[in-house]
Amino acid sequence: MKTRIIECVPNFSEGRDPQKIKAITDAITSVKGIRLLDVDPGEATNRTVVTFVGSPEDVVEAAFRGIRRAAELIDMRTHHGAHPRMGATDVCPLIPVSGVTLEECAELARQLARRVADELNIPTYCYESAALRPERKNLAVCRAGEYEALPQKMGNEEKGPDFGNHPYDEAAARTGATTIGARDFLIAVNYNLNTTSTRRANAIAFDVREKGRPAREGGKVTGKPLKDENGKPIMIPGTLKGTKAIGWYIDEYGIAQVSMNITDIATTPLHVAFDEVCRKADARGVRVTGTEIVGLVPKRTLIDAGKYFLRKQHRSAGIPDEEIIRIAVKSMGLDELKPFDPREKVIEYLVEDQNAKRLIDLTARGLAEETASESPAPGGGSISAYMGALGAALGTMVANLTAHKAAYDDRWEEFSDIAEKGQELMERLLHLVDEDTAAFNRIMDVFAMPKKTDAEKAARAEALEAATLYATEVPLRTMEAAFEVFDVVSAMAEFGNPNSVTDAGVGTLAARAAVRGARLNVRINAAGLKDRAKAEALLARAEEIDRLAETREKEILAIVDSKI
Question: Annotated catalytic residue: which of 40, 58, 275, 436?
Answer without folding.
Answer: 436
